[in-house]
């Protein structure tokens, strides 16, 4: 029975992150490329489109978290949301104008945003030891992200004229997961939950260490948008346009290097947590961010740094797993059982909501402010990528300084070893 549950969770996580990967990795280039290959959406307008998912992540996870904690089975909520989101993604593949594209992205984002916290809470509710088991299940999401990137590269190579295939792939995955969700283990609401569970989750912010983690999570969340919004365009821009010069059809596959590294780091996560504790594990995750962005910053002007851009994508394994996944485990341990879904919704709100919403707008503005418009029709604009990536470099350095100064526990490993301990 337990093996069957884990297998279902694997499929759920694989599809959950395949949906996101299928469109998110290359949509910046798709929006920015001039018609007919793309939509011709640049700068601040790109930031507005990207801000839809973070915006939805601000208000949807608390609403859905309350429903999951009090009213409706989590797996049923997950299924309905993915079915509606799949239809919206298929709609995105058909539109070419900014206004309907923005509207459909908002609808999709409203549906997808709460599913990230829902999948976590479904898994945590059915595991006996999250420290040992969650990483091994969550790695399926990474595999799904990689497989979607490879599938997208294959489709773009075999159907080069089908520029909207990213949304067709994402929509198909979403519809499949929507149906599959109804066959997941039943995860009913807690019988005696606080009717204001999310308010109680907010009470966790009274603890200095928890508040410090959330502040750093917000900062890192803002800088995550620089990676998702700009990396594909940065990699695809020619060297004389201050980019890396990678052919467009290969970008999705090359960016999967980060997720391949993520698999190894994910599998190693329980060993690191037990060896050095969550505090040091999360700190390593924070430090990995400015190292990668520093390489991106130097690459447009220094050849040695440009040669390190592709290898530096492997740092995403530490950036994501040691910070975000370790953070999900930390929140699961400090939150009382009756508000775990709402606590997971809170971290989703801070990182995927407030952080990424602010980050998408800032990333779009920063790119627009450092773009020189092309005077030749059909030619791409020049972006000063060194100045663009300097912003996240500075901010993640500040987060790496703040975290070890203020995040404390009675023992560095006290929140890592025993699943029943809810230490701060």
Per-chain topology:
Layout: H1 2-24, H2 27-32, H3 43-50, H4 52-70, H5 74-92, H6 98-125, H7 130-158, H8 165-180, H9 197-202, H10 208-236, H11 251-255, H12 257-298, H13 303-312, H14 316-334, H15 340-369, E1 371-372, E2 382-383, H16 385-406
Antiparallel strand pairs: 1-2
Helix pairs in contact: 1-6, 1-7, 1-8, 3-15, 4-6, 4-15, 5-6, 5-8, 6-15, 7-8, 7-12, 10-15, 10-16, 12-13, 12-14, 12-16, 14-15
Would you kindly provide a brief summary of this structure?
The chain has 424 residues and is mostly helical. It has one domain: Growth Hormone, Chain: A (Up-down Bundle). 73% of the residues lie in helices and 1% in strands.
Tell me about this structure:
- With 424 residues, the protein is mainly alpha-helical.
- The chain is built from 16 helices and 2 strands.
- Helix 1 runs antiparallel to helix 8 (165-180).
- The protein is globular and about 60 Å long.
- The two termini are 34 Å apart.
- Mean pLDDT is 84; it is low at 410-414 and 416-424.
């Amino acid at each position: 029975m337990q093996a069957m549950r884990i297998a279902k969770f694997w499929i759920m996580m694989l599809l959950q992150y395949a949906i996101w990967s299928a469109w998110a990795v290359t949509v910046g280039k798709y929006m920015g490329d001039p018609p007919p290959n793309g939509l011709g959406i640049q700068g601040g307008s790109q930031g507005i489109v990207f801000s839809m998912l973070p915006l939805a992540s601000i208000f949807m996870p608390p609403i859905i978290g309350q429903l999951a904690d009090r009213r409706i089975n989590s797996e049923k909520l997950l299924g309905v949301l993915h079915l509606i989101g799949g239809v919206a993604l298929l709609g995105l593949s058909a539109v070419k104008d900014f206004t309907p594209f923005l509207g459909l992205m908002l609808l999709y984002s409203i549906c997808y945003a709460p599913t990230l916290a829902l999948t976590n809470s479904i898994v945590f509710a059915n595991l006996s030891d999250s420290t040992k088991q969650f990483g091994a299940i969550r790695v399926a999401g990474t595999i799904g992200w990689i497989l979607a990137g490879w599938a997208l590269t294959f489709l773009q190579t075999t159907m080069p004229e089908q520029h909207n295939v990213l949304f067709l792939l994402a929509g198909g995955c979403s519809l499949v997961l929507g149906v599959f969700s109804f066959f997941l283990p039943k995860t009913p609401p807690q019988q005696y939950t606080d009717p204001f569970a999310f308010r109680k989750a907010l009470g966790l912010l009274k603890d200095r260490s928890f508040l410090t983690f959330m502040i750093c999570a917000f900062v890192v969340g803002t800088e995550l948008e620089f990676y998702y919004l700009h990396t594909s365009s940065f990699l695809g821009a020619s060297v004389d346009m201050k980019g890396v010069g990678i052919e467009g059809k290969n970008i999705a596959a090359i960016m999967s290097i980060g997720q391949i590294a993520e698999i190894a780091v994910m599998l190693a996560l329980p060993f690191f947590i037990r060896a050095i504790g969550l505090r040091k594990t999360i700190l390593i995750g924070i430090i990995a961010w400015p190292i990668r962005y520093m390489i991106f910053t130097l690459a447009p002007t220094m050849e040695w740094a440009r040669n390190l851009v592709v290898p530096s994508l492997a740092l995403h394994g530490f950036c994501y797993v040691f910070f975000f996944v370790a953070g999900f485990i930390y929140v699961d341990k400090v939150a009382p059982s009756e508000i775990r879904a709402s606590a997971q919704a809170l971290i989703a709100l801070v990182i995927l909501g407030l952080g990424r919403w602010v980050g998408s707008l800032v990333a779009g503005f920063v790119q627009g402010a450092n773009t020189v418009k092309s005077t030749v029709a059909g030619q791409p604009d020049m972006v000063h990528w060194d100045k663009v990536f300097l912003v996240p470099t500075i901010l993640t350095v500040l987060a790496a300084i703040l975290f070890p100064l203020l995040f404390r526990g009675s023992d560095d490993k006290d929140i890592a070893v025993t699943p029943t301990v809810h230490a701060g």
